[in-house]
Every structure is written in structure tokens, then in C-alpha cells.
Amino acid sequence: MFNLGGIPENWLKPLMGVLLLTAMCMAIYWQTWGSMVSIWLRSDTYAHGFLVPPISLWLIWIRRKRYVNLIPEISYIGLIAIIIFGFLWLTAHLVHVLVIEQFAIVGILTSAIWSVLGNNVTGKLLFPILFLFLMAPFGEDLVPYLMEYTATFVVAMLRLTGISVYREGLHFTLVSGNWSVVDACSGIRYLIASITLGFVYMYLNYSSYKKRMLFMLLSILVPILANGLRGYMIVIIGHLSDMKLASGVDHLVYGWLFFGLVMLILFYIGSFWHDPVPVLDAGPELATDSGYRYDHFWQLILAIACIFYFWPNAADFMLSKQAANVNQASSILRPGLAEWQSGIEPDWGWVPKFNGTQHDDQFFMTDGESTFGVYIANFGDEKQGELVNSQNVLIQQKDPYWRTLKTSKTPLIWQNGKTSYVDEMVLHSNMHDLMVFRWYRLAKENTENSYYAKWIQLFKRLSGDNSPELLIVIYTEVANTNDLQQTRTKLQKFAEACCE
Length: 500
Hints:
The chain has helices spanning 12-28, 30-42, 52-61, 64-67, 76-94, 98-124, 126-131, 143-160, 188-205, 209-240, 250-270, 297-319, 329-332, 450-463, 484-498; strands at residues 2-3, 7-8, 166-168, 171-174, 177-180, 341-342, 359-366, 371-378, 403-413, 419-428, 433-442, 445-447, 469-477. It is α+β, with helices and mostly antiparallel strands and 500 residues long. The protein folds into three domains: 2-138 and 291-319, no CATH class; 141-273, no CATH class; 329-498, Protein Transport Mog1p, Chain A (3-Layer(aba) Sandwich). The strands form three sheets. Strands 6, 7, 8, 9, 10, 11, 12 and 13 form an eight-stranded antiparallel beta sheet that branches. A three-stranded antiparallel beta sheet has the order 3-4-5, with no helix packed on it. A two-stranded antiparallel sheet has the order 1-2. The protein is flat, with a radius of gyration of 28 Å. The model is unreliable at 287-292 (pLDDT under 50).
């Protein structure tokens, strides 16, 4: 039986439930959805997000004959999934992990759809529903690793082909000119595009889960390998043309042409293992007795609405307890500096600075031989900026004067007897070399690990602890570039004295 322009009667309430819950989810969590859309608008890497919902609907529409006679039903497992994803959204929102927050909101929406369609129907629609998770912008954390891989791959290939190259971090020099690996060279755009296209391709052309998973694995590995080859080819073109070709915007054009060719080859190879085109005739008509198990439909909608509202209110309550506490930094970080005296700022030409702080404190100390700089960034309740954020860098990527020569981990033994590591960096300019220690301090814990720092933040906020959350940088001039241990020892002694 059909109603409302041909919609089967057994789908009227389920579709109404899906539309209603989608509208409620978007209205209640509008900030998270808005953050997702803003990323789509400003980043070409994630602009495909606008296409994900229409493609998901299209994947369902082209096989609609398979679903027309299915009988949706209420799923309480889906209801539990909403609670799980809701708690995940809460934890991510409390510590400002936007990518997880965005994945969680998609999980909340898809779980709500699951709850009104039931286990059987959701299982049949699994791939189009999972495709919605590609709306969430992901992959930014992979960029540094992909940049490192690209630089390593290109330098290895150059040396393999007999070209002399000198590497310094992400910068390398050939006799024909200088090159550097920047964010655009990481290949994250190719990787995201390949995953999106690969998902659609495998769903349309394979019915075997093994084939689908194998093709998705290739869709991940092939663009990573191809990006390394792309980087090598661009450097070779620039080298052989005496830096007249592929050294400007044109190398991005070459990159996309090469990526398009790689994807065509991947799809062509994948075509040899296509499964037969499925028959899309509708299955046998199913009985629609008992209101097709939708006797408690409105109770379900009300329960889901209450769950939707609960998590944002819980987040507001917990975040309201987080005071800025911007006046405690200096007293916490100067307990053992009796051996050092206040000093004047040296003419090193560099000081750390992070955006979005609610308060920062900069001072210099001297022991008569060396001068040590201390910088304390307090982000307070993080309304202006985040403590743990990839944008909090010591040197901007295109800094005209400074470069990072060396990065490592250095152990420190604090006054409370605990041992932890800090990030050690050696910064270089034409005039000075500086050694820098950088770490986080939260709930009387010191760590350089950003993931552990987020965990501490999470437990602090869940427990109502409102103590300061600090990003600490101490630094001094390198006494001897050939003997970094001498400077490291001095800096370790100073750090262990100035922090609890």
C-alpha cells in the first residue's frame, strides 16, 4: 500500500522519524555541525563534505527496490549507541578535540537513524550510513607524519638515482636549488579524496566484504605511495629544468594530474575483480501487522530527544566549573630558583608566543654564566584558544630567520621525585642557536605527550578540578654546537629547579 506520493505505508513513520531526529540533532548540536561546515567552506581538502549526504542518499536510491518491502522496527541497541556516542561527544567537547566531537555527532545521528529503522534495515543500509562518517573532517594529525614520509621518500629516491642531496629536517638542497616539504606536500588531500572515491567504488562494484576491505586498503596505501613518487617527480622536473619548471604553482597542477592518473589505474585494476551486477528486484512483500512494531514510536522519539538534550547541558555544567586561574602560574613555577637571579632579556631575536592565551608570563633568570628564558602560557578555560593544539608551534613553517635543527625527548627529575620527558628542540638562525624545552603542566603533572595531556584535561574536567593548565617553554643559548650535552645539562638543572 502506498501513500503520500508513492511512499510505502510501512516507510511512513520510519521516514518521518528519520527526518524529525535529523532536524533535532542539527538544531541541538548546531555548533558542532557548524564547525564541520565551516571547515568544508575554507578547506579544499574537506570540501567533499558537502557531497557526502547527497551521495549517501543516491547510494540508497539506486538500490531502493531492495528496501521498499523491508519492515523497519524500533532498535534499542541503536538507542544504546546514541548514549555511547553522546558520551564520546561530551568528552571530546570538554577537551576541545574537534575531530572526535565531529565524528561523535555523526555517530549520534546515524545511531538515531538505526534506532528508528531497526537492526535488519540498518544492516541492509550499512554502507550508505557508514559513508556519512566521511562528513567529519579527519586526517590533520597525520600531516606531520605524511610530510616526514614524503621528505624521506624523495631524498631516498634522489640518492638512489645518483643525485647528491643534503637534507635538514623537511628542507633539502640539490646543486640546482632548494626544496622544502610543506603542508600541501603531505598528500592528505589525495588520501582523503582516494578514501572517498574508493568507498563509493567498492560499494558499487563488489558484494564480497573481503574484496571491499582489500580495495579500501589499496585506496589508503596507493595515494601515500603515489604522493612520494609525485614529490620525487616534481623535484626531478625542477632539477632537470634548472628550476624553471615545477618550482611554483604548476607543481600542484602536475600533482593533481598525476593523482588522477593513479586513481584511474587503481579503478582499472579493480575492475578485473568486479562482482556480477546485483538483481535489484524487490523481495517478497512482508506483512505489516501490529503497526510494524512501531507501537511505541513517539515514546522512542521523546526518549531520543531527552538523550540529545542531556549531553550539551552536562557539558555546559562541567565547563562552568573551569575558572581561568591566570594568577597562579608564577607562584607554581618558581619554587627553587634561589641560585638564580632575575636577568634582562638577551638579544637572541626569538621569544615563544602562542595565540589564544588568556594570560602569559615571560621572565629571564641568570646564574652568572648563562641566561635562561621562561615562558608560561595559560589558556584558562580555553574560550580563546586551546592548550593542546597543533598550531602552538615554536617556529612558523615559513619563518625567514629560524629553523628547527633537531628534536628529541629529554628526561627530567622533578622536585617531587617523579621523572617525565619534555620536548627538546634546537633552533638555529644565522646569529644564534637556542636549546628549548617545552611541556604541559596539568593537575600537578608534567608531560610532553599531547595525548596524555588531553587525558589529564578530560579527567580534570569530569572531576571538577579547576587548577591551571599551562604550556611551559624554557630556553637558553647553545654554548657549543658541537657539544649539546653541556647546554642540555644546564637546562635540565634549571628546569628541575623551577618546577615542582
